[in-house]
Write a structure and sequence with these properties.
The protein contains 10 helices and 18 strands. By secondary structure, it is of the alpha+beta class. The strands form 4 sheets. Strands 2-1-10-5-6 form a 5-stranded mixed sheet. Strands 3, 4, 7, 8 and 9 form a 5-stranded antiparallel sheet that branches.
Length: 533
């Protein structure tokens, strides 16, 4: 009985520590909370293969799984401390303080972290010691009358252990423990609610600024999507990916919610003769362009879902860089890398030559006709056609620094990914689905292919390793967007393997060789096995 109560006291202690820590984090910054700090530190140290495993198996829920895992480990640790503390209180206090110190170190060492980021974990640990002392004191054994000596003192060991004449297990201040635990739970709930309210107030201001935003009509609108860009095949998605279905892959455990009114962007570094500091309104007053651009995540395995097409509106990045006095290396500029920094500390390095070569590299303000969603980088993010997201698509942007690849390694480069990563020519079968059972006869085999900034010239399909058959391509919108395709297959009964490959407008045909996503994107032919009935 006392062990179970001890475990419960540990859980209450842990919950109170988190509540207090999150309240302090609401004042310091949400990213400094212990769960977010430890989770962020874990992500920072995750090897590429484990990152890919998480993205592959949990998708956009990978962060939720990580947070739940941290909470589960914390709960086990807290229960163990709660069981130990009634007999060895100093050991319990020491364990709590060590755990708090780990959270503090993780918070301080996070990108953008500072000494103040240690406060949530430190204050949470100190408050936990107080709660643990209160609850553990109620779980100390009360000696039975038979165990007392003539002078009324306990006739047993003085170290808190149960002596021969002590009361049976479970003889502790149950009523006092229940009252203390209830009070601690109530206080934790109140503190947690206050912390959530403080966090919510900042988020509400950001949401208000986004809701009030009306994007001006672009000076250069996107071309109309050709009527033939969508093939209308069942099982094939739309040409433009709905915003709610657009993939999200990033390291942010807490999605930054930034008030556009207070947002600022700095452009500085090597070769910058006129450093710029721009507000959101400054960008709105500039010439806006609108473009359809397909983005791809480098973590997208062959046949994977992390590719999507959207209509973006924003400011030409090259125009801003030229205004700051930047010249690309081909024209004598000293910087060959543009490092973008997010408000959450993420750094992404893009080739200066690429973002200034005439392609529609954007500082995007809107997506599919609306201001950027918070999940996708509000108020401003980068979009660069033809580059994987980890070297181009910085969300929640706040700083652009011109430097060199020799002088600085961005976040993912430090973790074994390549410095330069143009998107590879790829294709995917969307229908029929793997292990589907279509009826014999004409079966449409359809999907998408992409080779951003080059365009798709041809898609071919084969069955069971036989001859390649040329698929019918949808109308091409631009070379920066994906292209739908379909092949009418006269299917016979039995098990069959379908394979697809694409050729881009530069004449390159996908390689059959299967390579994983590390260090610069996956290669290989997507295949699907079906059983025709």
């Amino acid at each position: 009985m006392r062990a179970a109560s001890g475990a419960l006291s540990g859980l209450v202690t842990g919950a109170s520590a988190l509540a207090v820590a999150e309240l302090v984090a609401a004042v310091v910054r949400p990213e400094a909370g212990p769960v977010n700090a430890v989770g962020g530190a874990f992500i920072d140290r995750t090897p590429p293969w484990l990152k890919d495993f998480a993205v592959r198996n949990f998708g956009t829920n990978d962060k939720l799984v990580l947070q739940l895992g941290i909470l589960a480990l914390l709960a086990v640790f807290a229960m163990a401390v709660g069981v130990v503390a009634p007999r060895h209180r100093p050991a319990g206090f020491a364990a709590v303080l060590v755990f708090g110190a780990l959270g503090a170190v993780a918070a301080v060492e996070r990108p953008g972290g500072g000494p103040l980021d240690a406060l949530p974990s430190v204050v949470g640990a100190v408050s936990a010691c107080g709660v643990l002392h209160l609850l553990a004191g109620r779980l100390t054994f009360r000696p039975s009358p038979a165990a007392e000596g003539a002078d009324g003192t306990p006739d047993g060991p003085s170290d808190g252990t149960q002596g021969p004449g002590a009361a049976p297990d479970g003889s502790f201040d149950r009523r006092g423990f229940v009252i203390a635990a209830t009070a601690a739970v109530a206080a934790s709930a109140g503190i947690g609610a206050l912390g959530s309210r403080l966090n919510g107030s900042g988020a509400a201001e950001a949401a208000t600024s986004r809701a009030a935003l009306v994007l001006p009509a672009p000076a250069s609108p996107a071309r109309p999507v050709p009527a033939g860009a969508e093939l209308g095949v069942r099982g094939l998605g739309p040409f433009t990916t709905p915003t709610k279905e657009f993939y999200r892959v990033d390291t942010a455990l807490v999605v930054p919610r930034i008030d556009a009114g207070g947002w600022r962007l700095k452009i500085h570094g090597k070769g910058v003769t006129r450093p710029l500091t721009l507000s959101f309104d400054d960008l709105l007053r500039r010439e806006l362009i609108e473009r359809d651009i397909t983005l791809t995540c480098v973590s997208n395995e062959v046949g994977g879902p992390y590719v999507g097409n959207a209509r973006w509106i924003g400011v030409r990045l090259a125009d801003l860089l030229r205004e700051a006095g930047v010249a690309p290396p081909s024209k004598g500029g000293p910087a060959d890398q543009l490092v973008a920094r997010s408000v959450d500390g993420m750094t992404i390095g893009s080739p200066v030559e690429t973002v200034m070569d005439g392609r529609d590299a954007l500082l995007a303000l809107g997506m599919n006709g609306e201001p950027l969603p918070f999940d996708h980088g509000f108020p401003v993010r980068m979009v660069v056609p033809g580059l994987y997201g980890y070297v181009s698509a910085c969300k929640w942007l706040q700083d652009l620094e011109l430097t060199t690849f020799a002088d600085y390694d961005a976040y993912w480069v430090k973790r074994s990914w390549s410095r330069r990563a143009p998107i590879k020519t790829e294709s995917r079968i969307d229908t029929p689905r793997p292990f589907a059972s279509p009826k014999a006869g004409v079966v449409p085999v359809a999907g998408v292919a992409w080779a951003q900034h080059r365009g798709i010239a041809r898609v071919e399909v084969r069955v069971d390793g036989g001859d390649w058959h040329t698929a019918r391509l949808a109308a091409q919108h631009t070379r920066d967007t994906w292209r739908q395709w379909v092949w009418e297959w006269r299917a016979s009964t039995g098990s069959h393997t379908l394979e697809v490959r694409a050729t881009d407008l530069d004449g390159y045909t996908q390689t059959e060789k299967r390579v994983g996503t590390v260090p610069d994107g996956a290669t290989g032919w997507h295949s699907v096995v079906v059983a025709v009935t």
